[in-house]
Amino acid sequence: MAATMSSILTTFMLLLVSSSLVRTGHGLSYGHFNRSVFPTGFLFGAASSAYQYEGAAFEGGRGQSIWDTYTHKYADKISDGSNGDVANNFYNLYKEDVKLMKDIGLDAFRMSISWPRILPHGKLSGGVNKEGIAFYNNVFNELLANGITPFVTLFHWDLPQALDDEYAGFLSPRVVDDFKDFAELCFNEFGDRIKHWITMNEPFTFSNGGYDGGFIGNLALGGAPPGAFVPKGIQLLSPISSLIIYFLATQLLPEYTRRNISKLDVQAAQRALDFIYGWFIDPLVHGEYPRIMQSLVGNRLPKFTKEQSAMLKGSFDFLGLNYYTGNYAAHILSYSGNISSTTDKRVRLSTDINGVHIGKPTGVSIFFDYPRGLHDLLVYTKERYNNPTIYITENGMGDVNNHTTKHATEDIQRVNFYNGHLRAVQKAI
Predict the structure, then answer these.
(1) Which one, 10, 90, 122, 400, has the greatest CB density within 10 A?
(2) Do residues 105 and 44 lie in contact, with contact meaning Cβ atoms separated by under 8 Å?
(3) Whether 118 contacts 129, CB under 8 Å
(4) CA 18 → CA 30, 66, 96, 133, distances in Å?
(5) pLDDT at 139 over 90
(6) What is the pLDDT of residue 302?
(7) Closest by Cα among 114, 121, 226 to 164
(8) Contacts of 209 by beta carbon, 8 Å cutoff, 6+ apart
(9) Mean per-residue pLDDT, 355-363
């Protein structure tokens, strides 16, 4: 697959894949903007993750993940008290879902393999769940039979609870070998059909939300020492020891167009990119963390050996980008309180200036409709990181669940959202 012009190869993982975006009676007319304006090889698809989508949490020999523990034991931490026990029930309804994908016209489907469904105890020594292997074989075969290319994520945050209990998961280097075993098992079982492997979903969010912020899974129960950067280094080394590709994602792109922007704020925006984005991609491109991180974090930042640096550099085949919104960045002169990966960058991120939001609000309070950010992120990645192959592996708009049937069917705001972001991608190409 080859893209034209800037050679940015992107996959827009969206449910919106109609060949013509046309609405009559609502002032919307996008008939001239369709698949034909994108280069040959551009894929349209949808994305999911095992815990959010599969359900069947207690079926088919699946072991428990940290999310099972978290949502059941600490349901008060989930705004609506929901969990993934049933979810969309993809485990039992995958054939119907694949048919819907084909009817919509999807080229690709991104999904994740549940580590505890394959290895209920997290380790090879605990036994391989043959029912789990059979389930994924059936799903992959069904997708391919319907002309849909699977993009498979190995780790989408559902760490086996057994490994969290035994050694605190990614806080311990012991996870490297267990993840390596899990990855190699997946390659051996499914590698004859799966050609697009994604190592980890949003390592920044998993690290900061779990080990630093305490709101991803049950990681709030343990957590890293204040200001620790250990999980990120281990996450980088886990894929390398497995000799697999790396997945990088970000949801934050600082905005540069503020009126009267100062030089310090421009520098703050770059620091935010380095701490949120470069933290994971710089080692893969350059073999080391961004220099500003090394300077500000100091000895708390893990050091790569020469051998590790050499293994990391150039070790990915493509980057997967998740984009939902943009942020303004402002310089912070000083900070007090606990040292953390959040305060180290000395940047204040916000979504508004004097009450004016960066984009149109969505159903998720921290996400705003801001297509320019996606365009800028693609161009930034192309220019700063030697024009890597890119797939957009998540993009979408959250919505409230109280619309009338008529409103939900017309879904005008979402049509506008996707139109804007697709145009941003096309412009970047």
Answers:
(1) 122
(2) yes
(3) yes
(4) 11, 37, 19, 33
(5) yes
(6) 86
(7) 121
(8) 215, 216
(9) 93
Crossing angle between the packed helical segments 279-286 and 230-242, to the nearest 10 degrees: 40
Pick the catalytic residue from 142, 383, 394, 410: 394
DSSP string, 385-419: TTS--EEEEE------S---HHHHHH-HHHHHHHH
In the chain, the percentage of residues whose pLDDT exceeds 70 is 79
Beta strands in 184-317 (DSSP E): 196-200, 254-255
Fill in the DSSP letter of residue 77: G
At residue 287, what is the residue type? G
Distances (CA, A) of 290 to 281, 287, 294: 9, 10, 7
CA-nearest of 117, 56, 126 to 84 is 56
Mean pLDDT of 2-15: 38
Encode 63-97: b = buried (16+ Cβ within 10 Å), e = exposed.
bbbbbbbbbeeeeeeeeeeebbeebeebbeebeeb
Domains in the chain: boundaries? 11-250+364-428
CB 65 within 8 A of CB 115: yes
Backbone angles phi, psi at 387, to 5 degrees: 55, 60
Distance CA 355, CA 61 (A): 51
Q: In the β-sheet with 347-350, what is the strand arrangement from edge to edge?
A: 254-255, 327-331, 347-350
Q: What dotted CATH number matches 11-250+364-428?
A: 3.20.20.80
Beta bridge partners of 369: 360
49, 112 Cβ separation under 8 angstroms: yes
Torsion angles phi and psi, residue 108, rounded to 5: -145, 155
Q: Is the dihedral of CA 259, 262, 265, 266 positive or negative?
A: positive
- The answer to whether 394 is a known catalytic residue is yes
Look up tokens 């280094």; give the residue.
Answer: 233
Decide if 210 contacts 219 (C-beta within 8 A): yes
Both tokens assigned to 146: 């319907």
The predicted-structure confidence for 49-78, as pLDDT tens digits, reads as follows 999 999 999 999 999 999 999 999 988 888
